[in-house]
Amino acid sequence: MTEQELIRxxxxxxxxxxxxxxxxxxxxxxxxxxxxxxxxxxxxxATQTAFIKAFTNLGRFEExxxxxxxxxxxxxxxxxxxxRAERTRLAFWQRQARVTESEEAVESAVVVKVEHQELWxxxxxxxxxxxxxxxxxxxxGVSEAEVAEILRxxxxxxxxxxxNALARLRALVEREFPELQHAVLxxxxxxxxxx
Length: 195
What we know:
By secondary structure, the protein is mainly alpha-helical. It has 10 helices and no strands. The protein is about 75% helix and about 0% strand. The chain has helices spanning about 5-10, 15-35, 40-55, 65-85, 85-105, 115-125, 130-140, 145-150, 155-175, 180-195. The protein starts with a helix and ends with a helix.
């Protein structure tokens, strides 16, 4: 069954179709929320709220459009609401990151397991907007067109934000994570060009 058929059935109240749509997108939605809020419990809350809002407003969704960008936009919005409401928690994570860096210990509060933990720590030091565009583009592999739709910005703006976010990441790495310079200076764009 196609996603459009599932959406039509979900709009008609078919609970199995709703469950299948949730199952298809739950992992990526949670991963996006987790990248934004950097806290498991908050990510779960944001994802759950986003799914409730999405399926409550499913009647407004245009079936001819892709479902994932529409859903991810809702997830991102909910996660950013949680992040803004939890500034004290964000301050805790920033302090935790500084302590972990200074001790060079095994990260006990890792939010997401990634192959390059140092790079991930560097990305987590960026501002929310930079981290969001890099997460969507490189860690989740979302296309520029979909990032534009999720963030409700023009595709050219996505390119500009990615370029600027990567420049800020490179500067941060040169300053604070010199062992990563080779990986970041080549960056994801050169990896994609090589493929």
